[in-house]
Write a structure and sequence with these properties.
This is TBC1 domain family member 7. The chain is 67% helix and 0% strand. It is mostly helical. The longest helix is centred in the N-terminal third of the chain and has 21 residues.
């Protein structure tokens, strides 16, 4: 049976049907009643998520929807009502209008829900945590069709990242040893060291927003898949993969400021290459085997 499965997988991939086995596997998991959330997390870690199931998986794993499918209709109505109530409250308070960008609307909704919406908005959009929220919300606006889902998925990812902020703040120190290990001739690593690039990169911010606003949206979503599965260490490998992938241009740049500018916005064509390499490195060191994510409350 194992040989037969391996042959099918090889056949599918050879003729361009990569992902057929993954699609079958996730469909089997989604037929379980109730859903096994831990199995779904592990699926996120071990396999690419088929696009048509991504948003639904996120919603279940992040606790927006219950593991019990019988409650889904009720929970969808509940989330929609909460969204509408928060939106209406901001309208009554004259804190939003028809021209307010959705990410800013969502931030105000989140803050009013948490009882943290300030009376004066001066400087509110530039506060570090709020900027992280806005970055995530902007990505969701490009990835998710339904505005209610945009809001709740943004909220849950943001809360997950804030909850694990202490972990995210120590992860940047792992980039340098990993880069040194993967740069076989140490030429790039020495160049980076000479210009003190790593200490100047906003790695903590990048990690806390999962590269939202740095990588293209379609690349960020694949990073978020692993984070949803419970692996924050993927963020380290994305940084390493970014530097390794852009090796040639970085070696040709002799000013740190120019390197920083170059790394600020990654071209869409490079985004997928970087994330593919990051996932390869992440798998190479065995991080796809176990979820470290806590259970999410509904």
């Amino acid at each position: 049976m194992s040989d037969e499965r391996n042959f099918r997988t090889y056949y599918y991939e050879k003729f361009g049907f990569h992902g057929v086995e993954e699609k079958k596997s996730i469909e089997i998991l989604l037929k379980e009643h109730p859903l096994d959330v831990e199995k779904l997390r592990l699926f996120c870690l071990r396999y690419p998520i088929p696009t048509q199931y991504r948003i639904y998986l996120w919603k279940v794993i992040l606790g927006i929807l219950s593991a019990n499918q019988d409650r889904h209709d009720f929970m969808i109505r509940q989330r929609t009502t909460q969204y509408q109530d928060l939106f209406h409250a901001l309208q009554v308070l004259h804190r939003i209008n028809d021209s307010t960008p959705l990410p800013e609307v969502f931030l105000r909704m989140y803050l009013i829900e948490e009882g943290m919406l300030p009376f004066e908005e001066q400087g509110m959009m530039t506060m570090p945590n709020n900027r992280i929220y806005l970055s995530l919300a902007s990505v969701m606006c490009g990835l998710v069709e339904d505005q209610v889902d945009m809001y709740w998925i943004t909220n849950r990812f943001y809360r997950l990242l804030i909850t694990h902020k202490d972990t995210l703040l120590i992860l940047p120190e792992k980039v340098d040893p990993c880069l040194k290990k993967e740069d076989t001739d140490l030429k790039l690593w020495s160049h980076i060291q000479k210009h003190q690039l790593l200490s100047s990169l906003p790695l903590s911010t990048w990690f806390q927003q999962c590269y939202a606003g740095i990588l293209p949206e379609t690349s960020v979503e694949r990073v978020l898949d692993k984070v949803a599965g419970g692996s924050f260490i993927i963020l380290v490998y994305v940084a390493v993969a970014m530097i390794l992938t852009l090796r040639r241009p970085l070696l040709s740049i002799m000013a740190k400021e120019d390197m920083l500018t170059y790394l600020t916005k990654i071209h869409e064509d490079s985004g997928d290459i970087i994330v593919n390499k990051a996932i390869d490195l992440w798998q190479k060191y065995g991080h796809q085997k176990k979820s470290a994510s806590p259970n999410f409350l509904e």
